[in-house]
Amino acid sequence: MARPNAPHGRTGRPPLTSRAEILTAARRLIDRDGWEKLTIRRLASEIGVGATTLYHHVRDKEDLLVQLLNHHADQIPRPDLPPEPRERVVVAATAMHDGLADWPWAAEVLTADGFLRRLGESALWLVETILAGAVDHGCTPAQAVDVFRNLWYFTAGEILVRAHSAPRPPGERPDFFAGRDLSHLPNLAALGDQWPELAARDTYREGLSAFVDGLLAQATR
Asked: Is the pLDDT of residue 117 over 60?
């Protein structure tokens, strides 16, 4: 007697996945569709497993984002720190900027309240370095927090503005203020089509250096 045909599809235990595969697929979805559209269900579909399988590795979307951020931070080499407190602040802030420049969505996630306390040691090391540099320069702990907070706003803002600025083709210089009456705004009128090119320059390090000097001077005045 012939045996009945086996049913199509997978049978038995559900397919397994690893944390590395989950994080890689999550990063792929975020790069493609944005972190706001990332869900556990969409991630499970991307990997080809059931959503319940993912809950063995992540509690929810927020936990997944935290794991992604901490994994990324763990891959960033720690910079050598100079002995001068002011220079340590600049080096740590630059490392924070460069680590997030290719992950602008991460900077946006980190602007949400409460994420700092869930970061791992690799990410918090940068925060600690900035705080310690400010204190060693003469700031009180409260002033050191203000220094870090302002540097973080400056850094995150620079990353997000650049991420949301559409690149222009090389050589294209349209009149940025075309059709506008700038007769009462002479400085803008003089710039004209130079504005996009000038605004696109990378001046983060120059701005950071001046900003750190101002923050430390104000705090310890």
From this structure: yes
